[in-house]
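Holo model, 3,4-dihydroxyphenylalanine. Inputs:
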Amino acid sequence: MMKEKLLEIKEEALKKISETNGLDKLNEIRVAYLGKKGELTQVLKGMKDVKPEDRPMVGQYVNDTRKAIEEKLEEVKTKLEEEVLNQKLKAEVIDVTLPAKKNNVGHRHPNTIALEEVERIFVGMGYEVVEGPEVEYDYYNFEALNIPENHPAKDEQDTFYVNDKILLRTQTSSVQVHEMEKGKLPIRMISPGRVFRADEVDATHSPSFHQIEGLVIDKNVTFADLKGTLAQFAKELFGEDTKVKFRPHHFPFTEPSAEVDVSCFKCHGKGCRMCKGSGWIEILGCGMVHPHVLEMSGIDPEEYTGFAFGVGLERIALLKYEIDDMRLMYENDTRFLKQF
Ligand code: DAH
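Output:
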């Protein structure tokens, strides 16, 4: 009677276990047969009705049944676990022969590289790097720099006006005025930044480009200091054997004024395509700060003197990296930019 019941339980359990396809279901079956309220436990509770001499034998049957069910559970569990693992491995396949994903690392623009070089040179000489506003009052861009109302540099064709008094600065020279007005002397600064002019775009012009302004004001500053400073600058920028030439020129805010040429770093003065056969390349404008300009910003020209210079940043970058068209600088074609 008991034996048959046990056999029945065993067969039913083994069949259910074999048909199971999930690990959670397998656990449900374990509980249903072997758990505290499981079928086998129920049978054991009926032991008290079994005749004492039969008890060892029935006990043996119960144990055998439990063992059979446990073994089958274990077997199917292993099988199911293996299946789960295999499926996981299949789904998470990593193809180690695929090329790795590349990180595209950014790159500095040739203008930025040239600027950092210029800054390095002047900071090395004790200059401070300062910035000024791109949207500027007429006063700072023109008037305080000795460019009066009817000066041709103010012509509306060259300048982007916001209104009568406000404009986009046409030169970084405006920062000279801001620095002088602060009233802290001596001054030894460079000021890089964007400037704007109503120019048509071509190989050498753009309505927006960059300049680096320089200003030194102290007691006993002379033209010799200006020459020495710019000669050193040219050497560091273009090479130790670079010579400089000062050509007399006119700027409203300096007196005397000059344009500076450097000996061609390509042909060393013999004449080539780079220097258009002359052996010299023009790189900047400069001069001694006009006494009236000092005065307008509250500096006594009897006590203080100074020099100033203005460099076109694009011009430096084009020269240094031998780029023949300024438009390339603004197109941001990475094939171009990557070369520097
Ligand atoms: N601001 C001038 C320009 O845009 C360049 C310049 C010339 C700046 C002479 C200076 C200077 O500081 O002394 O053409």
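The first strand starts at residue 128 and ends at 129. The two ends are 95 Å apart (CA to CA).
Archived with the compound record.
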